[in-house]
Amino acid sequence: MNGARLLAGLAAALLLLAPGGCALAPVYSSGPSSEAAAMFAAIDVAPIPERSGFLVRDNLIARLATGQAATAKRYRLEVVLDDRIEGFGVRGDNQIVRERRILRARYRLVAIETGKVLFEAVAGSDAGIDVVSSEYAVVAGEVTALEQLAGAVADQIVGRLAIYARNLS
Questions:
Q1: DSSP string covering the chain, please?
Q2: Pick from 58, 47, 55: nearest CA to 80
Q3: pLDDT-derived band at 158, boundaries 50, 70, 90
Q4: What is the mean pLDDT of the chain?
Q5: What is the band of 24 on the pLDDT scale with cuts at 50, 70, 90?
Q6: What is the mean pLDDT of residues 62-70?
Q7: Does the pLDDT value for residue 4 go beyond 70?
Q8: How many CA atoms lie within 13 A of 156 on its CB side?
């Protein structure tokens, strides 16, 4: 009897996972002709100041490249970054032994023609850095953390924009 119940349960689960039984669908299900790809091709990423801005902007441009032919830019992505390093691990002699690099981005998608803000949100990530006796190693750790955080923040922004584009249709 337990075998029959198990088979019935598996059959019911398979029916739920069949096409049409699940509301989830990939954002890029239509490939380069998807809503997200079409919107990405029309986005101009505004310059972002400082090294962190350069890294985030470079990552955004790379992720928004959809392979579609160049189209007229209808949208501008404006990003304001907050990049800071905080010490939080302290030894008995008041020496910092751990830092946290925090990168936050407030961003908005603006229609170039009207200047209307279509979408705005916040993205962010942080990374821990060990503070060692070598100042070079600490600086290298901070730079590496920034590079990784720039990619993570760009991924979040592009993901949210893809969902926004999909919900437009």
A1: -HHHHHHHHHHHHHHHHSTTS-----TTTTGGGSHHHHHHHTEEEPP--HHHHHHHHHHHHHHH--SSPP----EEEEEEEEEEEEEEEE-TTS-EEEEEEEEEEEEEEEETTT--EEEEEEEEEEEEEE--S-HHHHHHHHHHHHHHHHHHHHHHHHHHHHHHHHHH-
A2: 47
A3: very high
A4: 84
A5: very low
A6: 76
A7: no
A8: 21
b/e sequence 35-50, b meaning 16+ C-beta within 10 Å: bbbbbbbbbebeebee
Q: What is the pTM of this model?
A: 0.78
150, two tokens:
């720039």
Sheet holding 75-90, edge to edge: 43-45, 75-90, 96-111, 117-130
**Could you tell me the domains of the chain?**
32-168 (3.30.160.150)
9-16's contacts with Cβ under 8 Å and 24+ in sequence apart are: none
